[in-house]
Amino acid sequence: MFLSSLRRGRTPFAAPLRALAAPNRTRTLTTSWPRRAALATHPPAQPTVLLSSPSPEYIEQEEIDVDLLPPTEAQIVITDRAAEQLRTISAREANPDAALRIAVESGGCHGYQYKMELAKSRALDDYLFSHPTLRPSNILVDAVSLSLLNGSTIDFATELIGSSFRVLENPHAKGSGCGCGVSWELKT
Fold first, then answer.
1. Quick one: CA torsion of 60, 149, 47, 51, rounded to 10 degrees?
2. CATH C-level class of 43-186
3. Which helix or strand (DSSP H or E) is residue 49 part of?
4. What confidence tens digit (pLDDT) does each residue in 53-97 have?
5. Cα–Cα distance, 155 to 124 (Å, whole number)
6. What is the DSSP letter of 70?
7. DSSP string covering 114-161, please?
8. Cα separation, 122 vs 74, whole angstroms
9. Contact present, 141 and 127 (Cβ < 8 Å)
10. According to the lineage, what is the superkingdom (predicted)?
11. Between β-strands 138-142 and 126-130, what pairing exists: parallel, antiparallel or unpaired?
12. How far apart, in whole angstroms, are the C-alpha atoms of residue 56 and residue 40?
């Protein structure tokens, strides 16, 4: 049938090609992917849970120069997408205490930079946060860094160049920071 159509000068693709070439026709493409992706970056409906915080005695004993945030004021928002990735990492490591450690260091092109690494356990000066419903989804932030990260939103992004955890919104950062998404300047 295909060969006989070609011999008569017709192709089975001619009708679809004519439809695409029709000048008065418009085609619309709809997808639910962008909508789902946008929803994934929204914070969870319930607030992120603070599971533990450093003790004032430990901070004093170690002579760490920081004013501890009260547990009622300490907040890191974990998106559903980041929580799901943390849960996957925890399952792969077979360790429910596996966590993403986020720290702030001086340096980078704007004065401060985020440092993120996987941790297997909590240090005594860490705040431990978790997503309200997707667990385990642990995020550790040391007491000094939390003073610069409090109120930030943590997300996980997958792009053509790779996948990574990111600080989406930091209320202590001036502007959007560097194009790399790691370096930022402190509001004054």
1. -30
2. mainly beta
3. strand 49-52
4. 999 999 999 999 999 999 999 999 999 999 999 999 999 999 999
5. 25
6. P
7. EEEEEESS--TTEEEEE-SSS-S-EEEEEHHHHHHHTT-EEEEEEETT
8. 17
9. yes
10. Eukaryota
11. antiparallel
12. 36
Strand order in the sheet with 99-106: 49-52, 126-130, 138-142, 99-106, 112-119, 183-186, 173-174
What single DSSP character describes residue 179? T
Query: Would you say how long the chain is, in residues?
Result: 188
- Is 154:82 a contact under the CB 8 Å cutoff? yes
135, 150, 160: which is closest to 80 by C-alpha? 135
Residue 128 tokens read as 């431990």
Q: What is the pTM of this model?
A: 0.72
Q: How far apart are the first and last CA of the chain?
A: 75
Give the angle 108-187-74 at the CA atoms, nearest 5°: 95
Q: What is the pLDDT of residues 156-182, one digit of tens each?
A: 998 878 888 998 888 888 765 555 556
* CA angle, 122 then 125 then 130, to 5°: 50
Please provide residue 112's backbone torsions phi and psi, each rounded to the nearest 5 degrees: -130, 155
